[in-house]
Structures are given as C-alpha cells and as structure tokens.
Design goal:
The protein has helices spanning 2-5, 9-22, 41-65, 131-141, and strands spanning 73-77, 81-82, 94-95, 101-105, 149-151, 157-159. The chain contains four helices and six strands, in the order H-H-H-E-E-E-E-H-E-E. The radius of gyration is 18 Å and the shape is globular. It starts with a helix and ends in a 13-residue tail after the last strand. Helix 2 packs parallel to helix 3 (41-65). The chain is an alpha+beta fold. The strands form three sheets. The protein has a two-stranded antiparallel sheet.
Length: 172
C-alpha cells in the first residue's frame, strides 16, 4: 500500500490523509512543495509530476475502493499559474493570469474540463472562472453555505466566500 502511494513525503502524506478521512477527520492538507521552478523547470516538473501523479491517483483509487470517494472532496491546486514562456534560466515564472485546479469526488461531476486558455496559454479564452468562484463551489460541494458569514471573536464578520462569487454549475 505504501509503495502504491509512492515513498515520497507527498505520497505518504496522501496515505495519511486517506487514513485521517477514514477516521472521520473533516479536512486534511497535503503539500507538494517545489513548484517555484524559476530555473531548471523541466527537471523539476518531471520529478514533481511523478510524485503528484502517483500519490494523487493512489488516493483517488484507495478512497473509491473503500467507499469514501463520494463523501470526500479532493482539491489539488497551487496558489497561481506559471508563465507559458520559458525564461533565460530554463524556468517558468509566476503567472496569475491563468492557472488550473483538479477536483475529484465529493459529489463533483468529474470527467470534464471547465474553462480554457488561449492556444498560447497567455490568457483566459471566454468567461473566466475566478478564485472566489472556485472557493464558493468547493464549500458548496462540502455542504457549507458560501454566502454565510461567521463572526470573529471581536465581532467582525468574516465571509466564507466573496459575495460576487458564482458557483461553477458544471461541477455541481
């Protein structure tokens, strides 16, 4: 089982996340650091992608086999995208204009791509899906009202999602 997830920090983190979910933990986070590939992008991304593919796919398969995938939402994304152009150090720089996320399980309608970029990857083609839209969709999928506000300990309202957020209806 450990080998199927990969004997990396990320792979073993995915296995630990599965074990936590199996025991009723509501949220688990697994990090795969190193995507800041300003130099030597190709070597780094090959290694990182291998770790991600093995651990992420094993987690999905394992949750499905244990009957936990329908009730567990898996979200895989970084904080922003990477430039579609290679810099002078064979790297890719920050690119907040476009990025991607993968959602699996948890009632999400899978097997589809929602949104796209222009052929050169520089900008969004069509209507953009914004970060608040993703956040609202994720919290809705796990049964939380995205319009809800919580009150802080100093009576300051804190929103679950931005009020301008639009649910990504194709996913729900």
């Amino acid at each position: 089982l450990r080998d199927s997830y990969g004997r990396t920090s990320f792979g073993q983190g995915c296995l630990l996340a599965r074990r936590l979910v199996e025991r009723g933990v509501a949220f688990a986070e697994v990090s795969l650091d190193g995507w800041d590939t300003h130099q030597n992008n190709f070597t780094s991304v090959e290694r990182l992608s291998g770790n991600l593919d093995q651990g992420f796919s094993a987690l999905i398969v394992d949750l499905k086999e244990r009957g936990l995938l329908d009730d567990t939402l898996i979200v895989c994304h970084g904080e922003f995208g990477r430039t579609p152009r290679i810099n002078g150090n064979s790297g890719r720089d920050h690119w907040p204009a476009t990025w991607s996320a993968v959602l699996a399980g948890g009632g999400i309608k899978g097997g589809q791509a929602v949104g796209k970029t222009t052929a050169d990857g520089i900008s969004v083609d069509g209507d953009p899906t914004r970060t608040p839209d993703l956040i609202a969709t994720v919290v809705k999928a796990v049964g939380i009202d995205p319009t809800k506000q919580n009150m802080s300990n100093v009576s300051r309202p804190i929103r679950i999602a931005d009020p301008s957020a639009k649910l990504i209806k194709e996913l729900l």
